[in-house]
Amino acid sequence: MSAISTLNFSSSRFILTGFPGLEVHYLWLSIPFSSIYAMVFLGNCMVLHVIRTESSLHQPMFYFLAMLALTDLCVGLSTMHTVLGILWGLIQEITLDSCIAQSYFIHGLSFMESSVLLTMAFDRYIAICNPLRYNSILTNDKIIKVGLAILCRSSLLIPPVIIRLKFLNYCRPHILSHSFCLHQDLIRMACSDIRFNSIYGLALVISNLLLDAVLIIISYIMILHAVLAIASREERIKSLQTCVSHICAVLVFYIPIIGLTMVHRFGRHLSPLVHVLMGNIYILFPPLMNPIIYSIKTQQIRRRVQRLFHLKGM
């Protein structure tokens, strides 16, 4: 008992929470989770490969899609070693430094995905509302600058709040709520003054995720206004169809975030298993679904993927 207390209160190691109550089924659970991670990697790599090798897809819309696929690929890499490590019985704990690093990548990549989705909304707005100037506005140089701006916004704003985690005193039980590390999980265990982390963290969420969501909604209001002004019904439907994939990607990203936030805020009475499942949905659902959405809904991607598999089948 004293050893456990020492681990929970004094050590710099943290216990990862797998799936409470399902420990005896970890071997079986590892099969669907391994399959999901394999699909995440194969799906996003396939999208990147198709965009890289097909010259007709070297357009702004698909460059932004490549950014989204690369972000999703990194999200999978950032959590795979702890999620599958628990299910395979390889790890049960994580050091503070590793936990902080994983937290940085998870939150940074989440902000990056939000930024890419906002950029894709802007791309759709230009394509529909100002099609004649589309290529002159979104030149390759501007796309590179946008990519660098997204990278800086997602990586340079987080370090102040993440680095501070290293200097907090963790006196509460070192038991994480998920199979990976989140900033809010670590500050929950701290006995130090966490006002900076709480205020700065909230400011980051408002200035990134919430602001991006509002701007995406505004962009679609303007798109809808422009589409309704088109006289031909067929042209209106055709214009809106180019946005379907992006709208699905936005919903796939934001709905799990809202669900996880609600569970953390109002679901304290719920089973820990619900928290763990929501956490894994938040991490894995967007990277899993985005390649499927774009392969089905985007005609150019779908045709190229079909051709790719047809050639391999031959």
TrEMBL record:
InterPro entries: GPCR_Rhodpsn, GPCR_Rhodpsn_7TM, Olfact_rcpt, OR51/52/56-like. The keyword Membrane applies. It is a multi-pass membrane protein. It is found in: Cell membrane; Membrane. Residues 43-294 form the G-protein coupled receptors family 1 profile domain. PROSITE patterns: G_PROTEIN_RECEP_F1_1, G_PROTEIN_RECEP_F1_2. The chain crosses the membrane at residues 26-51, 63-91, 103-122, 143-163, 199-231, 243-267, 273-294. GO terms for biological process: cellular response to lipid. It comes from the Eukaryota. It holds the Pfam family 7tm_4. CDD domains: 7tmA_OR51-like. One of its GO terms (molecular function) is olfactory receptor activity. Keywords: Cell membrane, G-protein coupled receptor, Membrane, Olfaction, Receptor, Sensory transduction, Transducer, Transmembrane, Transmembrane helix. Its main location: membrane. GO terms for cellular component: plasma membrane. The keyword DNA-binding does not apply. Putative odorant or sperm cell receptor. Belongs to the G-protein coupled receptor 1 family. This is Olfactory receptor.
